[in-house]
Design a protein that fits this description.
About 0% of the residues lie in helices and about 60% in strands. It has an 18-stranded antiparallel barrel. By secondary structure, it is mostly beta strands. The chain is globular, with a radius of gyration of 23 Å. A hairpin with a 5-residue loop joins strand 7 and strand 8.
Length: about 400
């Protein structure tokens, strides 16, 4: 019997006693006591890269999701999610088969207990926050890619608690454990058996809102330098600040500052990123949306100096052609010595259960760190097209 099945039997033991009814059961006072549902997503894609040779990749993904909740009273609720990520793909150059990739892994496995103005969630889950759209300094625990229409990302193992105040402020506290692979912008993996701790405070600020985030962890140098013994640990601390306001146009900023314990391994001690952006919808036709962001990333031995800088300006245009169709174009200019453009245009058609996407891209052969994709391979380097179909059940 699988771990996911055992989890749900443990959390919702009455399932075996209840009649088969996807709507769940209702108590005499009309309150839902038990509810469970199975849904998910099936996706297929084909990506063709046109360079000196034609590289193409067909692939498919299956992501089933089992949801359940148990509620009592007016405010108390226990709910859970269990899902797996199964994908497979083939790589070809011309008509020559190169290799195959595939994996089955847990995607989300968490349990949440919530009250009127608080919640506590533990397990494999997604934790993300911040105001940026395209380039996200606060991408601490996820790897969502603005170019991915499905916005998929791996989760992290941990416990997250939230408390919500009446003035729309909120406090987040978390502790992570067992996430040794680098997450988000991390350069080094975390120590396997040392908990990571952090928190966030969101609060109203004038006509908008702001957030302050912090995080502490132990890094294991062995993950980056295999010749170094295991459990060679260094302290790492982070501080993030972000805010958003609507003053006729949407304005936001997002920052992240990371400093590593001094060491003798010639590793950069500072990592900082800044994003400022705006968006506005022009009254043209059905409404032309414009988003512009400036992003600066730095890593080096000094705060915002002595090291490597990356400056990017991004522009995203979005136009709803009809109720079903939407067009999006993205243009990224990478400055410094790179001095290059990355270009994307995509069309999406969405029905109740089906979604279809067609993307064209024209880029240099460079991997700009925007997020992650299945298989860990950047499919959008060079020139090419991608066709994707997704079915939600």
């Amino acid at each position: 019997m699988s771990f996911i099945t055992l989890l749900f039997i443990a959390v919702f033991p009455l399932h075996a006693q209840e009649p088969s009814d996807s709507a769940g059961s209702v108590s005499d006072d009309g309150l839902h006591r038990i509810h469970f549902v199975l849904n998910g997503q099936i996706t297929g894609w084909e990506t063709t890269q046109l360079s000196n040779s034609v590289n193409w990749q067909p692939g498919c993904r299956f992501l089933p999701v089992l949801l359940g909740n148990f509620s009592w009273g007016e405010n108390s609720k226990l709910d859970a999610e269990a899902s797996v990520h199964l994908y497979g793909l083939l790589n070809f150059t011309g008509w020559d088969y190169i290799n195959k990739e595939g994996k089955l892994k847990p995607y989300r496995v968490w349990l949440r207990y919530s009250g009127k103005n608080w919640e506590l969630r533990g397990g494999l889950q997604k934790i993300n926050f911040g105001t940026a759209r395209m380039f996200r300094p606060l991408m601490w625990f996820d790897a969502m890619d603005v170019r991915d229409p499905l916005q998929l990302t791996d989760g992290v193992y941990g416990i997250l608690g939230k408390y919500f105040f009446e003035n729309n402020a909120s406090v987040w506290l978390w502790s992570l454990l067992g996430n040794k692979r680098p997450k988000g912008w991390e350069l080094i993996g975390s120590a396997r058996r040392r908990p990571e701790i952090g928190g966030r405070f969101e609060f109203p600020a004038f006509a908008g809102e702001m957030g302050v985030s912090t995080h502490h962890r132990k890094t294991d140098v062995h993950h980056l330098l295999p010749d170094v013994p295991e459990n060679t640990l260094l302290d790492e601390n982070r501080l993030g600040l972000d805010g958003r306001w609507d003053v006729g146009v949407g304005l936001w900023f997002e920052t992240s500052f990371t400093w590593l314990q001094k060491n003798n391994y010639k590793m950069a001690l500072h990592q900082d990123a800044i994003n400022v952006g705006m968006d506005y919808t022009f009254p043209l036709g059905n409404g032309l949306g414009l988003t512009v962001e400036y992003f600066r990333y730095h890593t080096g031995d000094g705060f915002m100096r002595k090291g490597m800088n990356l400056n990017v300006i991004g522009e995203m245009l979005s136009y709803p052609v009809s109720v079903l169709d939407n067009l999006t174009a993205m243009f990224f200019y990478v400055g410094n010595d790179l001095n290059m453009w990355l270009n994307y245009i995509s069309w999406a058609r969405t029905y109740d259960k089906w979604s279809f996407y067609l993307m064209g891209f024209w880029n240099p052969e460079i991997n700009l760190p925007l997020g992650g994709q299945a298989g860990g391979k950047n499919l959008f380097m060079g020139k090419g097209i991608q066709l994707m179909a997704s079915y939600n059940f």
